[in-house]
Amino acid sequence: MPSSAANKITLAMAIVLGVALFLPWLLHRNAPPDTLLVLYCAHDSVFADSIIRQFEAKTGITVQVRYDEETNKSLGLTNLLISERAQPRCDVFWNNQTLGTIRLKREGLLATLDPAVFARIPTPFKDPDHQWAGFAARLRVYLVNTDRMPASADDVAAALQANSLSNVAIAVPLFGTTLSHYAVLGDQMGLAGLKVWHASLRHRGMREVRGNAAVKDLVAEGACDFGFTDTDDAFAAIDAGKPVTMFPVRLETGQTICLPNSVAMLHNCPHPKAALRFIEFLLSEEVELALANSGSRQIPLGPVDHAQLPTDVVELRKWAADCISLEGAAEHHDEVLKWLTSEYTGQ
Q1: What is the pTM for the complete model shown?
Q2: Do the two domains 36-137+260-310 and 138-257+331-345 of this chain adopt the same fold?
Q3: Predicted confidence (pLDDT) at residue 26 exceeds the cutoff of 50
Q4: How many helices (H) and strands (E) does the chain have?
Q5: What is d(CA 13, CA 189) in angstroms, rounded to the nearest whole number?
Q6: What is the rounded average pLDDT of the residues 221-232?
Q7: Strand partners, 266
Q8: In this structure, how many other beta carbons lie within 10 angstroms of the beta carbon of residue 331?
């Protein structure tokens, strides 16, 4: 073969190889950004919706959001994501707490992101493997009716030792933050100790109701002296002018139970570019300040301008600083839920 022909063939092969190597990079670089995001959201729609609409306005990305019912929304969405593992539909899971999100990580369903995405969030509130991060937290609290009993943490502690707890309320612990509370106690007491504690509450007549909002209503209306609930429900009663105050639930270690929202991208999700943009937005100071100034008064976990925080949220940040790690609770979550399911449903 003449050398000129060989040179032409060599050149053509080099061009083909160069195009093969370069084209995927070029297409990726010039690919249009995702214009759709599928979001599963366990946070209350009354607070989440405005955040989602702000994101749409800023980015032009349309968000298709799926909420779930109040009583089991976090658990229900977690189970739905597990059921969809073979063909993910969801891009981002905005959970209203973290234990279910940790469970999804252990199921291998979450994407690993660049650590820079989570850089604003302090280490105790994010996954060391960069698969999820917490933000905008609530605390477990005692909500006390100040017309019915003296209002101090010591008074609440004494009342919990009484022979009768018929004027005290708690949500049935099969769902939500009450289940998380029980998982924390399971980690602290062991399952056997938790069973004894729970049996004591029921034996002494503690009122079990459908959810934290129902606890809030019973206390706010004077049907109960106090109850276990979350800061967002407590603020709903305070803002309504009810004669109530709150104190943090403290464990025997003196630590509080802080339950952040959390956000994660699903592994192999359909719209990863849009998912990343939404996660970056959700973890921003702008969003944490917005949620802190909403009716739910959620506690910022990353650095924020304190001058823009409500006074009562500044106080909550002090309580949240004493919080226990939720990693141990995540270890016990499944066994606690299995026991509670048997306890309440016989299954």
Answers
A1: 0.85
A2: yes
A3: no
A4: 12, 9
A5: 69
A6: 98
A7: 110
A8: 15
Place of tokens 């234990």: 99
pLDDT at 19 over 80: no
* Distances from the Cα of 5 to the Cα of 1, 2, 11, 344, angstroms: 7, 5, 10, 83
d(CA 302, CA 320): 12
Residues 6+ apart with CB under 8 A from 88: 81, 109, 266, 267, 268, 269, 270
Amino acid at 169: A
**Length of the chain, please?**
347
End-to-end CA distance of the chain: 81
Task: Tell me which of 3.40.190.10, 2.30.40.10, 3.60.15.10, 2.30.42.60 is the CATH number of domain 138-257+331-345.
Answer: 3.40.190.10
Cα–Cα nearest to 156, from 148, 144, 146: 144
Q: Which CATH topology does 36-137+260-310 take?
A: D-Maltodextrin-Binding Protein; domain 2 (3.40.190)
SS3 171: strand
- Residue 49 CB coordination number (10 Å): 15
Residue type for position 344: Y
**From CA 37, how far away is CA 280, in angstroms rounded?**
14
Confidence of residue 27 (pLDDT cuts 50, 70, 90): very low
Strands 36-41 and 168-171: unpaired
What separation in angstroms does the CA of 271 have from each of 159, 219, 258? 52, 45, 31
Name the DSSP letter for residue 261. E
User: Residue 75 has what pLDDT?
Assistant: 76
**Using CA atoms, how far apart are residues 114 and 219, in angstroms rounded to an integer?**
45
pLDDT at 212 > cutoff 50: yes
Contacts for 189 with CB less than 8 Å, ≥ 6 apart? 196, 197
With a CB cutoff of 8 Å and minimum separation 6, the contacts of 77 are: 40, 41, 42, 66, 68, 93, 95, 100
CA distance 213 to 124: 28
Other CB atoms closer than 10 Å to residue 4's CB: what's the count? 8
Pairing of strands 133-145, 244-248: antiparallel
Partners of residue 100 on adjacent β-strands: none
Residue ranges per structural domain of the chain = 36-137+260-310, 138-257+331-345
